[in-house]
Amino acid sequence: MAGSALADFLDQKCHTAESSRSLEPKETLRGFLSSGGKLIRPVMCLCGWYAAGGAWDPGPVVKAAASLELFHAFALIHDDVMDDSDARRGRPALHRLLAEFHRHRHTPGHAERHGVHAAVLLGDLALAWSDEMFHTAGLSPAQIRAARPLLDTMRGEVMFGQCLDLLATGRPIGDIEHALTISRFKTAKYTVERPLHIGAALAGAGQAMLDTLTAYALPLGEAFQLRDDLLGVFGDPRETGKPVDDDLREGKHTVLMAFGIARADHSQLSVLRSLVGRSDLDAEQADAIRDVLVSTGARAAVEQMISSRRRRALSALHGAPLPPHAITALRRLAHAASARSS
Predict the structure, then answer these.
(1) Does residue 47 sit in helix, strand or coil?
(2) pLDDT per residue as tens digits for the range 143-186
């Protein structure tokens, strides 16, 4: 449902382009949004709506939920620029793609800068469109008043989490709690808790319902990010759509890396300190880091944390005052989000 609503919105934007010049950036952004993605935030939003007793045919709520995917596109595009990523969803990251489009018109350095600048602007466009789609979805004034503060809170939290992530990148330490704090704001709240809250608020939910959803959402959101951390180091690029060594080259301060550093002996710590965060990291060096993360038990510890958090999320559904179909959907999402390979 949300995917169709998003496609309709993007089609309308491209159809109403004033000229071929204004169509080009719109088509590029539509291509990015059509290149894949799990639509997990819109899905969570709709689950929140159903959980709080919303009708089966939510109409405008689907459009409001789909607007979250436009905001996510903004976050991904800017994140890839900040991380200098090469790929996203199995294809070149948007700033790389835009640089390639214009390489025939610029010297290599200028083409790269052009790609970055154009990607930032298209990310801004996705942010503007997310607002537009939310406010033109056909929600009632009461629904907007209920959901807008949660939407604003979600945006602030993910920016805070991204800032913490950026400040810690390049100098990971053995501080597991700090790494969890980053994942809580960057992912757990943004991906699961707030979308559920927004959907529930659109159905008229009170604080008790939001608290019930939080008990499920935060452990699941953390499990989702912990799985992402593992896939970023041990995943198959053919499935994840991203280079497998990027997190190691950037020196991301993840729970996985924090466990490795905290548990490493002197020689293992020397490997991590000398190699993690090197922009010229090669495949053999990346494998040496992986060996340490396995031999210290860091990988196994993160797997245990994922299982523990999934159990906590599922336990929160026992006896929860939610419709049976909503509980069934949330249980399926808990398994899909924590046991994925991409």
Answers:
(1) helix
(2) 999 999 999 999 999 999 999 999 999 888 999 999 999 999 99
Residue 48, Cβ neighbours under 10 Å: how many?
33
Q: Which of 199, 62, 213 is nearest to 143 (CA)?
A: 199
* For range 182-205, the mean pLDDT: 97
Segment 292-298 long-range contacts (CB within 8 Å, at least 24 positions apart): 292/260, 292/264, 292/268, 293/233, 293/256, 293/257, 293/259, 293/260, 295/268, 296/259, 296/260, 296/263, 296/264, 296/268, 297/259, 297/263, 298/256, 298/257, 298/259, 298/260, 298/263
pLDDT of residue 22: 63
Q: Which helix (H) or strand (E) covers residue 75, if one does?
A: helix 60-83
What domains appear along the chain, each with residue ranges and CATH number?
A: 1-139 (1.10.600.10), 141-342 (1.10.600.10)
- Looking up tokens 């894949």 gives 36
- Find the radius of gyration of the CA atoms of the chain: 21
Give yes or no for a contact between 5 and 60, defined as CB atoms under 8 angstroms apart: no
* pTM for the model: 0.93
For residue range 91-119, what is the model confidence (pLDDT) as tens digits?
888 999 888 877 766 666 688 888 899 99
